[in-house]
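hi! just following up on the protien thing from before. the input was this:
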Amino acid sequence: MNEQTDIRELNERIRKESAFIDLINMEMQKVIIGQHHLVDSLLIGLLSGGHILLEGLPGLAKTLAIRTLADSIDAGFNRIQFTPDLLPADLIGTMVYSPKTEVFNVKKGPVFTNFVLADEINRSPAKVQSALLEAMQERQVTIGQETYKLDEPFLVLATQNPIEQEGTYPLPEAQIDRFMLKVLIDYPDREEERLIIRENLQKSFPTASPVIRTDDILRARDVVKDVYMDEKIEKYILDIVFATRYPERFTLERFQPMINYGGSPRASINLATAAKAYAFIKRRGYVIPEDIRAVCYDVMRHRIGLTYEAEAENITAEDILTAILDTVEVP
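and the predicted 3d structure came back as:
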């Protein structure tokens, strides 16, 4: 009885604290037509402090969606266009010598803000991409001998184009594992595209206005951590992640030669965190198996290493995840 009362109280608390979700959605809908999964994914990253990698063809509003989210929050925002000649110092900053004072002063880079848009992140070489690793994981930046804490909330929202290979550099496994979600963006449907054309032919293009502050986000993150997760749900998460490492234990032997490596413990943590954030968005104080299934592809698709055999047979990470979700017992 006590547990039921606690869940009821938690549901009521979440209903109050999640009111700003509607405000952000309204501001996003002013600019972004359709793409509901993209908007939900951005909110999950926002509520759980997880970085997001958006992958999609040119012209699908990846950059616009991130900019619109930043516009709806009263917080710092910097856009970095990744190019082949970019240097690590262009991201994090560097030491600049002052002839007047005869000392080196720290010039902080654009990473010192709340929201960083890393646009076309795969256009820069690995040394530039890796400059973000410390910021993404430890929420700090080291310049010279000094280490500087980054402001909270801090979020890296990166985009990449999957079709161009000329002049691009694939993200290293260590870098891509730092992203909580890898979201694939598809074409809008026919009616949505008609509205997009109409919106873009107006005299002025709509923009989002700030509706919440950073304090609201940090408070909401504390509430998200309180979302109840049953032991059976934890076991379900572990089964999914372990099935990517040891498919033969889950009667998925056919995938064993196709998986080079499976999800790390970071995958389990992110799957649980993203599911809690998704439950919060849905105004629920507890996680259900459907929450896990809803975020599973975005959390896991970039954490499964495929062998040449899988590529030869046109087996994708999504195919493997679909088989795992169909096989693993749902609590």
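The domain at 227-327 is CATH 1.10.8.80 (Helicase, Ruva Protein; domain 3).
The chain has two domains: 22-201+211-221, 227-327.
cheers
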